[in-house]
Amino acid sequence: MSNQAVAQKMREHHALMARQLHILADNVLTQKEQWETARNEVGAYLTDDILPHAAAEEATIYRVGSETESLKGLIESMLFEHGIIRETRDRLLAAPKWEEALVLGTEAARLFDVHAEKENRFIIAVLEPRNDIDLASVLGDMHHLLSR
Ligand SMILES: [Fe+2]
Ligand SMILES: [Fe+2]
């Protein structure tokens, strides 16, 4: 698969995850009667999809990115954001009130929007045109990066 095709799949996968996270976060607002269930569904999506995606990135595209001098600082900040997403998930799942769950769910979705767009624009877009990097082989097992 060409770098262009892999990069396109990564961007599409980011868009899909961002959409899904917003749908689930919006459910916390609209399903006030069952807000705890809606809160737990946001938490479960972060645990089962977003965070495994983040871990897969750390082992693949971030590892390769950090070998590029100009990307080192950015990769550090992206790792930091993975930690913030994890922390937001923990706080969300412990949120004792609807209002708090609502704010934290929305915050997680918005944070992921910005984070994923940074990957699209400043990591993927930089690696995509490089002919010394084969994105398909960098990603290896692409399950968590592309196919969920
Ligand atoms: Fe990430
Ligand atoms: Fe990502």
Detail the poorly predicted runs. Answer: none
How big a fraction of the residues is strand?
under 5%
Instruction: Summarize the main sheet.
Output: none
Give the end-to-end Cα distance, rounded to a whole number of Å: 18 Å
Please identify the top-level CATH class. Answer: Mainly Alpha
Average of pLDDT: 95
Label the CATH architecture: Up-down Bundle
**Under CATH, the topology is which?**
Four Helix Bundle (Hemerythrin (Met), subunit A)
Topology:
Blueprint: H1 3-30, H2 35-59, H3 61-65, H4 72-93, H5 98-127, H6 135-139, H7 143-146
Comma- or semicolon-separated keywords:
single chain, 148 residues, mainly alpha, Four Helix Bundle (Hemerythrin (Met), subunit A), 7 helices, 80% helix, binds fe (ii) ion
Structural account:
This protein is mainly α. It has one domain (3-146): nmb1532 protein domain like (Four Helix Bundle (Hemerythrin (Met), subunit A), Up-down Bundle). The protein is built from 7 helices and no strands. It has helices at 3-30, 35-59, 61-65, 72-93, 98-127, 135-139, 143-146. α2 (35-59) runs antiparallel to α4 (72-93) and α4 (72-93) runs antiparallel to α5. The mean pLDDT is 95. The structure holds fe (ii) ion (2 copies). One fe (ii) ion is lined by residues 54, 57, 78, 82, 115, 119.
Short description:
By secondary structure, this protein is mainly alpha-helical.
